[in-house]
Specification:
The protein is α/β, with parallel strands linked by helices. It has one domain: Rossmann fold (3-Layer(aba) Sandwich), CATH 3.40.50.150. A seven-stranded mixed sheet has the order 3-2-1-4-5-7-6, with helices on both faces. It is globular, with a radius of gyration of 16 Å. Strand 4, helix 5 and strand 5 form a beta-alpha-beta unit.
Length: 205
């Protein structure tokens, strides 16, 4: 397991993501099915910019034309090996896919909790010009048990913090929920999540 000091930028973190995803019991039970259905409900057929895409767990289930971005070059390489379109954060601005208004959705799933306090706005704001007017933002963070499960998590981000971040990004919150179980389950169920949905209205303040 990577240490907190190692962060999420190294090969060890990519290997951990792949190992967790390939666990036999997860494949047999298809534990990701409810999460895939929820993402389809939230994002529909929107072309999505997946920020912090990791090894492509969500990206491979997003509509055609969707693009992943991650600061970890090994994770981006893993995405490409799966036939997905992904770039490092340094590569993306020069990519042909990086066109103003090209994306109608933005996903940041299990990203913000890895950043310094307040880092979510700093990381996401540069991608706002690539969003079309009215684009939908979906932000997902772990609840208590999930937060404690990974030493690279740095800041606990709840509904209130996600709403404040959306406001700074010029987005209007339209839905907040606890998924897949009610909020109380987050104390013991590792995979219970805060889910915030917002509509982008303008540039970050």
């Amino acid at each position: 397991m990577p240490s907190a000091a190692g962060g999420t930028s190294g090969r060890d973190y990519t290997d951990r993501l792949i190992r967790l995803e390939r666990a036999r019991w997860k494949r047999v039970l298809d534990v990701q099915a409810p999460y895939r259905r929820n993402l389809r409900r939230l994002l529909g057929d929107r072309v999505v910019l997946d920020i912090g895409c990791g090894v492509g767990r969500h990206l491979e289930n997003l509509p055609p034309g969707s693009v992943g971005v991650d600061h970890n070059a090994d994770s981006v390489r893993a995405c490409r090996e799966r036939g997905l379109t992904a770039f490092t954060s340094d590569e993306f601005p020069a990519a042909s896919e990086a066109r103003p208004g090209a994306f109608t959705g933005l996903l940041a799933a299990h990203l913000v909790e890895h950043l310094p306090p307040g880092g979510g706005v700093e990381v996401l704001a540069p991608y706002l010009p690539y969003l079309a007017p009215g684009a939908r933002l979906v932000l997902i963070c772990p609840q208590q048990r999930g937060f404690r499960s990974d030493p690279t998590h740095t800041v606990f981000v709840d509904d209130e913090a996600l709403a404040a971040m959306c406001a700074e990004l010029g987005a209007e919150v339209v839905e907040q929920s606890s998924f897949p179980f009610p909020r109380a389950a987050g104390r013991w169920f590792t995979h219970n999540e805060f889910v915030t949905v917002a509509v982008h209205r303008g540039s970050a303040s």
